[in-house]
Structure formats: C-alpha cells, structure tokens
Amino acid sequence: MRAQTVEVMKSAGRVLCCTVFKPGGRKLLPKGHIISGEDVDLLSSEGMEKVWVTDLEDGEVSEEDAVLKVASLISCGSLEIRPAPGGRANLVVTEDCCTLVDDDLLRQINCTASIVIATSRNFQYLKAGDRAATVKSTPFAVPADQLEAVVSILEERGPLIQARPLRSPSVAVLYSDPQSGDRARQFFENIVRQRLECYGISPRFSLAVAEDEERVTKGLEHLLSAKPSAVLIASTTAPAGPEDAVGRAMARAGCHIEKFLAPVEPGVLTLLGYSGGTPVISSPGCFRSAKTNVLDLILPPLLANYRVSGWEIAGLGHGGLLS
C-alpha cells in the first residue's frame, strides 16, 4: 500500500490512514475506514479539503473484512460479533457462559504475520455482555494469501473458542464431618452460598451427614437422584485419597473417579468423579474461605455441562498458584 494526501472529493473508496477529528476533538471517522460517498459529504461539510489515505492493491483485503471473516470462523455457542474501529472485531457473549479455548490453535493463529486473537481464559465464567475475544489485524490491509491460510486452518481445526451457556444450573451440597454433619454445615454454608452467588445461583439441595462410608454413600445417592448439575462434598477432613471414607462412598454411589490431586493451590486434594454425567467434587479446605481456589477454575465448565477431564485438570498447573 502507498499512503498519500488527496482531495476529499477524490477520496471515496480509499482507506483512511489516520483518525479524522472535527474541531473540538470529536471523532468523525476512524483510522482504517473505507471512505464512502456519504463520508465525502460529511468531510466536506466540516470544511476539510484533504485527507491522508491509501489504496488497497491487488492481493490485499481491507482490515475490516479480514477481521470479520476470521471472527466468523473462530467461535461457536452464545456469541455475537461486534465490529470495532481500527481493524478489530469483538466477540461478546449473549448470555452467562463459560468459555473453552483451544490454546494450541490460538498459538498457531497468533504466529501468523497479519492476524492476532486475544481471548478470555480457558474455563472462564463471563456474564452476558462481556467480551470473550478480540480479533486484530495489521493496519489497513491484510495480504489475501495470509488471510486464506488463517481461514484454511480455522476451517480445518476450529472452533478456537466456545461459549457454553450456564442455563439454570442446579447444585447439591453434601456437608460431612466425623462428629456431626450439622457441624460441617455450620462451618461452610455461608461460604458455599457466597461462591455459588458468583454464578447467580444458590444451593438447590443440601444434606448434612456424619462422615462415614455408609452415611456419605446414602447422602450422595439421595442427592444424585434429584439430578443436579453438580454435587459438592463439603467435608471438614482432608482425605489422603480415594481410599478414604468420601472416596469409597463416591465409588459405592456409582461415581467413576476421574482425578485425584489438582496442581492448584489452594485445592490440591481435589477429588473429581462422575456419576453418569453428573460431576461430584470433594475439595477439602476450599469451603473454609471465599478466596479464589480450584473450585473457581472447574465449577464454570461443570455448571455449563462440560465434562472436565483428568487431563484438563492436570493442565491447570500452569498458573495454578492462586495465592
């Protein structure tokens, strides 16, 4: 591209090289904007005689068209595209969601010379109206062959980001303590409510039991029969593994143990299992405080009906020092 100053009357169809302001500082036209006939009339009415522009050459695509094309291919779920000035396209969630991000694909796209994408974190909870991603291009234009390469990768491997909605999730809580379940409820109930309120929900079902294998098993079976989105086990003890009372009770209640130990602090002793499609999470120590812990990392996808794998929990170690 070759930038030059031209008369306003000859600028239609060309690309602005800098933002145009009217006296007083109000923006008239953004940088990278393709000037239309209406824009020519507007500039003339403001007394402007010349503007700094460039022309798209053969083999180039305007920044606006390039980012909109990429934005249309990177996502799925409850998202909408909102063009923004300066060769940007924002993706905004249309309802409360959890975002899932393909880190490898994101890195591959961001290695190209002309397009970069910034996203929310993987497993991040976003409220309706929050921005989930932004696509940005090189100024003014993108080489068509580079855009085609990005499009080809996305068509083969996409989507890069998913927005999975949290649609009226329900959570059941089992409070347990070796002496009395009510003791655990007294210690943890307020913290559980605070944590779930972050997602706009409150516990729908709860039980308090003495922490032995038989009682925890019966409590879990009762809560699972209500078919909640997830079951939290708020225990006052710190089990040594799936062989302890809570882990044995989970197995007896029909849970497949997906992962014990999370590379996250606080939350190392997390035990995650699934009874059918219902996640059951025991995370000792994480109900004592409302401070960020492993539950804040794994609850959003679980409440969005996404099955978090042991492999994905293993990947939480990067950035797992939360305090």
Characterise this structure:
The protein has 323 residues and is an alpha+beta fold. It is 29% helix and 30% strand. The protein contains nine helices and 21 strands. It has helices at residues 37-45, 63-74, 103-110, 144-157, 181-197, 213-224, 245-252, 294-303, 310-314; strands at 3-7, 15-16, 20-21, 27-29, 50-54, 60-62, 75-77, 79-84, 88-93, 97-101, 115-119, 124-126, 131-137, 141-143, 161-165, 171-177, 205-210, 230-235, 256-260, 271-275, 278-282. Strand 3 and strand 4 form a beta hairpin. It starts with a strand and ends in a 9-residue tail after the last helix. The model has no long low-confidence stretch (mean pLDDT 92).
